[in-house]
């Protein structure tokens, strides 16, 4: 079932979460054992992230470096199928522009269609770690909206190969990203929301937000979206802070602010264990307030660790 159908059928706020595919060379058992306890809260769908290629440099021993391209977390489509098969739950692969040609994207979407996976989260992807700005594949897409339009066309039976006659239309439900604290490249919140509106007008069925720690930012974001005529479901993304390092790493990586009240509490912590307790409690309070606000679904970023999410979900669902 599609994400939007799950939301429409739900009698109350539903629980969902995002996982990362295992690092290359690791097996799927650890991932399964992380997911297993979270199934208690009956997530109607689980998101699986996509990771673009990275450059690694090998010392050739003669003063020269050899540049190699590698994908450290391959297998998003396979993982989606494996989770669906193992837990009988819908999976939502993230599909990114970065590093993919239109044809490669089309082939991945064909695989997903064959597997009965009918929702995708459509994203641009970030720049390659060693590059200052996002560079699209020469035969790929520059923005999420361009990738979205490819999926919209496939849903009408129009594939990249224009010679193809009577191609079967796919039937993907399409999610896109939204940023309660603005995407870092957007010149203003207004222009970022204008882009989001374009994505929805182009066919996006729902929005999932970047993580945030101040609910007021989400409430303001939703209010502005509604005023601008963005009427699709907006799913808040949440993550509990679990280590001292994340206090600086999360704002730097995701371009967000931590509220003073949270920072004051975190600054008193001496160990990661103490931080984790504060982070979980903060996320529980955020979740309760978001449910009261009437949010259709709470979406948690597990980042490979299910224990904090389990403790939050046990309090909420
Ligand atoms: P876009 O919507 O293309 O926007 C990118 C920037 O360009 C924005 O500043 C926007 O305002 C601007 N823009 C967009 N369209 C246009 C246009 N036509 N003209 C001019 N400006 C434009 N990354 C991954 O690599 N893998 C993942 O699995 C992944 N999952 C994510 C899940 C969620 C819920 C979120 C919120 C983010 C995720 N990301 C993931 C990160 C995401 O790829 C980055 O935030 C990326 O920098 C932007 O992606 P986007 O889809 O929002 O891009």
TrEMBL record:
E.C. designation(s): 1.5.1.54
Residues passing through the membrane, by range: none
Coiled-coil zones: none
Domain of life: Bacteria
Pathway participation: Amino-acid biosynthesis; L-methionine biosynthesis via de novo pathway; One-carbon metabolism; tetrahydrofolate interconversion
Reactions catalysed, as given in the entry: (6S)-5-methyl-5,6,7,8-tetrahydrofolate + NAD(+) = (6R)-5,10-methylene-5,6,7,8-tetrahydrofolate + NADH + H(+)
InterPro entries, alphabetized: FAD-linked_oxidoreductase-like, Mehydrof_redctse-like, MTHF_reductase_bac
SUPFAM superfamilies: FAD-linked oxidoreductase (SSF51730)
Cofactor(s) needed by this chain: FAD
Keywords for this protein: Amino-acid biosynthesis, FAD, Flavoprotein, Methionine biosynthesis, NAD, Oxidoreductase
Pfam families linked: MTHFR
Family membership: Belongs to the methylenetetrahydrofolate reductase family.
This protein's name: Methylenetetrahydrofolate reductase
Taxonomic lineage of the native organism: Bacteria, Pseudomonadati, Bacteroidota, Cytophagia, Cytophagales
């Amino acid at each position: 079932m599609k994400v939007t159908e799950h939301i429409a059928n739900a009698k109350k706020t539903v629980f969902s979460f995002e996982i990362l595919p295992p690092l290359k060379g690791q097996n799927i058992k650890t991932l399964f054992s992380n997911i297993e306890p979270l199934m208690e809260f009956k997530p109607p769908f689980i998101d699986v992230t996509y990771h673009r290629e990275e450059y690694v440099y090998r010392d050739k021993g003669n003063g020269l470096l050899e540049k190699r391209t590698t994908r450290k977390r391959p297998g998003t489509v396979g993982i989606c199928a494996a989770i669906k098969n193992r837990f009988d739950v819908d999976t939502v692969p993230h599909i990114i522009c970065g590093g993919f040609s239109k044809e490669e994207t089309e082939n991945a979407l064909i695989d997903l269609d064959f597997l009965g996976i009918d929702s995708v989260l459509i994203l641009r992807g970030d720049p390659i770690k060693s590059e200052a700005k996002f560079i699209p594949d020469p035969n790929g897409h520059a923005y999420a909206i361009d990738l979205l339009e490819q999926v919209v066309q496939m849903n009408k039976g129009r594939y990249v190969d224009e010679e193809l006659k009577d191609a079967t239309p796919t039937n993907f439900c399409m999610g896109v990203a939204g940023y309660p604290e603005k995407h870092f490249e957007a010149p203003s919140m207004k222009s970022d929301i204008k882009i989001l509106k374009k994505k929805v007008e182009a066919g996006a069925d729902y929005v999932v937000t970047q993580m945030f720690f101040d609910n007021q930012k989400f409430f303001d974001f939703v209010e502005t979206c509604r005023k601008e005529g963005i009427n699709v479901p907006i799913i808040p993304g949440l993550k509990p802070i679990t280590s001292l390092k994340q206090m600086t790493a999360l704002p730097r990586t995701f371009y967000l602010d931590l509220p003073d009240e949270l920072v004051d509490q975190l600054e008193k912590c001496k160990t990661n264990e103490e931080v984790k307790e504060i982070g979980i409690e903060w996320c529980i309070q955020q979740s309760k307030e978001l449910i009261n606000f009437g949010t259709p679904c709470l979406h948690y970023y597990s980042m490979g660790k299910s224990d904090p999410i389990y403790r939050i979900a046990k309090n909420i669902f």
